[in-house]
Amino acid sequence: IEHALSKVPGIKQSAVIAKERHTDTGTTKYLVGYYVLDHGYTSGRDADVLESWENLYDSEYEKTIGEENIASDFTGWNSYITEEAIPLPEMHAWRDDIVASINALQPSNVLEIGIGSGLLMYPLLKDIKRYVGLDISNQVVDRHKKLLEDQNYNVELYHLRADQIDQLPKKERYDTIIVNSVCQYFPSIQYFDDMLDKVIPKLSDNGHIFLGDIRNYALHKELIKEKLEYNGESYAQQDIDRAALRENELLIAPNYFVELKNRYKNIKIRILERNGGYTNELSKYRYDVVISVPDPKKVQKDSGNHLPKKGAKHYNIPFLNQISKEDILGHITRELPEYMIPAA
To answer: pLDDT tens for residues 48-79?
Structure first.
């Protein structure tokens, strides 16, 4: 039975024991299976994950919003800790901080991957020559096209995912590429890596990639702890570990970006901390990264294994916890007779 369990994709090790249940009518025996998740496993379900995000955002952005509010639509920005909407003054401070960091790069020809509700696009538009945006949600793209159609801005918007940026005009280059508060919705670190591979050749000389609002994997358990304490719950380390395992968004530690310099030759990395006059989970548990590329043609990628070395915990694996009971049973029932299937 253990051998059958260990063959299930996503399971690294397993153990099966026979337990006893004592009732008024006597003692019964039953089998219980235990398993250790394989942290090197990728489910191959990227398309399903992306489709679920697309459906969610399409339904969210179907809602009508007044034209006067569209440039400051903070709908859905709820606190992980309190589960309530983050106060608007803090959201404005968050945005002002990020816009200031991007403006410091002196953007002129901009590509934004994941324009969302336009929280960055609208403040940046007035000072740049050309703005190209793409988003996974067609509702998002249509909303902004309608608002901008009579405006005197050089804007081009596309309904594309992050992995489809190679469908943009081949010869167009951008001095600034923005990926803000989007990476956490990527299905895997491999998807993130593939995006970087496609983004770098799109840069002009001395271009920058601004990766904003990265959820910090190194501090994730501190965030969980703060949530438990806010709710007045007693907890042990095991409870924190379980909650971390259930995390379905992609979290990346700053050291992951430090190691990028070993993978890509001729790039520069800066980790930015938040400077805004506010303190909440957006300033404490998220950060920004600027990747500077003097000459994209000279960027050389290490052809070896580019993922962090074994034991380095620089990112989580979203949806790793979602090996369902049905998935497991579907595999082992093909291997075992019914009486050998664990009851739990």
So the answer is: 667 776 666 666 665 655 555 666 788 889 99
Structure tokens of 97? 């901080």
Tokens 């950060």 found at: 287
Cα 25 from Cα 121, distance rounded (Å) = 69
Q: Which pTM value belongs to this model?
A: 0.83
Asked if 58 and 31 count as a contact pair (C-beta separation under 8 A), the reply is no
